[in-house]
From TrEMBL:
Residues 1-24 form the signal peptide. GO terms for molecular function: efflux transmembrane transporter activity; porin activity. Its main location: membrane. The keyword Membrane applies. This is Outer membrane protein-like protein. Belongs to the outer membrane factor (OMF) (TC 1.B.17) family. Keywords: Cell outer membrane, Membrane, Signal, Transmembrane, Transmembrane beta strand, Transport.
Amino acid sequence: MRRFTLIPVLVLLTLMMAIIPVQAAEREPATPEFTMQQAVEKAMFLNKGLKSSQYDADRSEEVRDYVSDKVEYNATGPAPNSKAESLVISDVQAGINASMAKKNLMVQQDSVVMSVYNAYDTILQAQEKVKVAELTLKQKDWLKRMALVGQKVGTVDIMAVVQATTNYESAKSSLEAAKKALDDDYQKFNQLVGLWPDDRPVLVTIPEITPLEVANLDYEVAKALDVSPTVWSAQRKIDLAKLTKQLYDFTDSNSEPYKVKQIDVEKAEVAATDTKDSVSKLVRTLYYSAKQLEEQYAGSQESLRLAEESQRVAKVKFEVGMATNTELLEAELGLAQAKQSLLNISCQHEIQVMAFKKPWAYSSGS
């Protein structure tokens, strides 16, 4: 029986490798469906910042309890006790820090939700932008070809051809830019929900406008100020400054002048007032922006209805030879633009309403 030596076998294997192409297995982009709620839940579960904020809250509580156990009150004599006063201030500060850590956790949670809504809606808007860009390119390509045909038969001059070609190239560049922007939007969303950058999730929740009902705007502003973490923090700084002033030790030659403590109180009060004004203005601005979008939405709905009818009529006429392809393409583009406008308004309104209800999440994420 004939035996193969090692060298011929290696040569044979080498030839086989050269003849038979070996393709590395490429990962196919995943296309999982995501509702808005599913996206929020996934992002909340994966967000490391939330876990860190939870640790901060737990740590602050431990520090608060530790400091509270060390507080000693010296009530045996009229002389101030600098050490006791320092412990009291530390105890109050630790309590504020613990409460603030909890509020920061709430802000972080709301900010993650806001980020998901923004990323989700941005993809929906970018998809519509790509559709419009594709139809625009299709229309400009047709017009360019018609211009070239017209030039050949002498009905179109060279300048018209140049203009049509320029419009086509511009539309082509716009489509490429829209696709790149969509890819970037997908990447940002995928990072939030734990997908690979090249995955293309199917987003199934389409925002719809629900009018923002507010019986009393002043009441809503007051409510926002009452629950705002930034306003709460500013108020606590006033409390701490007043306590520090109240416990001032006049016998301590190393302490800052008493007047400085009064200045600290006034400074904290000014900062708190400024914070309240900022939150108040933001809430009112968000409300009026949302109401303006609602008015625009009604007009866009009518524009969409007219665009749908125009496209339907153009298609019927084209099929029976009563309309040109140019007219049909124009009607199709108009319909796509009307849909894009309506979706943009819906997405913007959704974010504005969320921000109105939780302005700290909006300002934190902006």
